[in-house]
Amino acid sequence: MSISINSLSVEFSAKSLFDNISYIINRRDKIALVGKNGAGKSTMLKIIAGIQKPTSGSVSVPRDTTIGYLPQHMTINDTSTVIEEVRSAFSHIDAMHARLDAINNELATRSDYESQEYQDLIEAMTTLTDRISMEESENCEAEMEKTLLGLGFLRSDFNRPTAEFSGGWRMRIELAKLLLTRPDVLLLDEPTNHLDIESIQWLENFLITKANAVVLVSHDRAFIDNVTNRTIEISLGKIYDYSVNYSKYVVLRQERLEQQMRAYQNQQKMIQDTEDFIERFRYKATKSVQVQSRIKQLAKIDRIEVDEVDTSHLNLKFPPAPRSGDYPVIADNVGKAYGDHQVFDHATFTIKRGEKVAFVGKNGEGKSTLVKCIMGEIPFTGNLKIGHNVKIGYFAQNQAQLLDEDITVFDTIDRVAVGDIRTKIRDILGAFMFGGEASDKKVKVLSGGEKTRLAMIRLLLEPVNLLILDEPTNHLDMKTKDILKQAIKDFNGTVIVVSHDREFLDGLVEKVYEFGGGQVKECLGGIYEFLEKKKLASLSELERTVRQDDSSKKESVPSSAKNADTAAAKTQGTAPGSQPSAGKLSYAQQREHEKLVRKARKKVEEAEAEVSRLELVVADIEKEISAGNPPTDIYDRHAAATKQLENAMSLWELASLELDSIS
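Structure (tokenized):
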């Protein structure tokens, strides 16, 4: 399987976005598609997905190759539960059954047994039967559960209507459906924008170990470095293709430009020397032969071209911060609940003037909620004091979506600017790469990153001394993120950053506030110092620890164990779901508990045996392949056996988790 992009060109309003681009997506490629905002990354994904047509050129997709596409924004069905919506990912199995029935009916009515058409039908029936058998042998329910848990859902969420979830969580539902279909090529446009760090880490592992070809647009450098093995940069209508991850690509690209420049300069010197010789001896008869030789030599030179570099860049600097009191934010036993759900409680901390701090933790643990408390947008319990002369500049997650899409870039700023700043609007827009004609664009035609930049300008229109930035890097390209990071580092006021971007937070903040389990904990040091102190490899492990502490009694205990707990609670007077110590269990309870443990342990042993069996099957097939001259179906058999092994491993993991939860 390989997809060919052939001589692709795209023009918008006589402006070239792509100019005669060609490349191939191979079977196991993990490609990072990078470039500045507006370079055409999302457009490229839409063209590959068949949603948008190029001006010229083509995309060749082999027959039966499946493509899965996750756009940045989509309309999501609100009429079913989470699990019903995700189960629809397997609707293709029903379609295969219907196709198989149609083939069988057609074969029953035909008698041209020797014809090519009849043989084609037989072959199609065999292929479909094998594929249905393989897919139905997999545990779809276990895969759905594992994927939803990996993307941050709780088991108690599975039967909730999708309409109860925010847009970001509904995007996760669509991502789960897409991953479960296991397409040959995954096209993902900013998949991490709505994920917390735990889910990003899980998605990284899934894409590395289970996905086939992937083309990924993301501005999370750590994420794409971990996932990808190839980088394609779109710049000024051309592409630069390197078989390395993004960080290595940046180094190699710079080396290439330097080598090109040296070669170009050397050639220019040689050309100049040759032209000087020709000019000096052009009219001397004794040198006519040499002059003619040099003229011919000059005509034959293949001129070296240096790759055109996009030198436009953001000029971002926050205005000097007016002096505030020594302690811009003092929280004392602050809590927030929605009905019976306590988001967090007893949050007590002090942020000093000039500090730069991060709020981290799983989505839904209260990071943005606490920001809203600080902003005075929602009521809360406890005491929250904003210091003397504190002027807050607030950038919300949905800031870009709040822009009026029917007015121009210039009018967007003109409507909020006051006083002398109105005379400098063009200069400000130019510094944010909205100079010239770009300032007259309608907001609706801007890319996600351009909208975020425009929303950021509004933040700069008046001096502030407390910046609160809630996921400010979503949709920003990597160069712009670096510039924003430096601008925040140079800012002499106080900063609170809510972010899941490890690379962005590294070297920026000196204190981390960890949200989880209804608590807000202060941890001194930067983001990676914080992880090191916790002796964790990643924030995902931290968040998973919090999650298990909070949810194991509710979600991880099997229903049979819950029933046993409830029955025991009625007998002993303890709360349902609580775990009395072994010494306090009655004889009947001990017998019931031991029975559950034996059953769970047997499940683990059976799963382990199945894993061992399938490992031997895969090993035998691989020996067949390495022996030379393997049969034609060997690779299909290998793929099927490998997939069965993956699913057996998943079942073993789930069985082990169940055993751990009741042991």
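The chain has a mean pLDDT of 79. The two ends are 47 Å apart (CA to CA).
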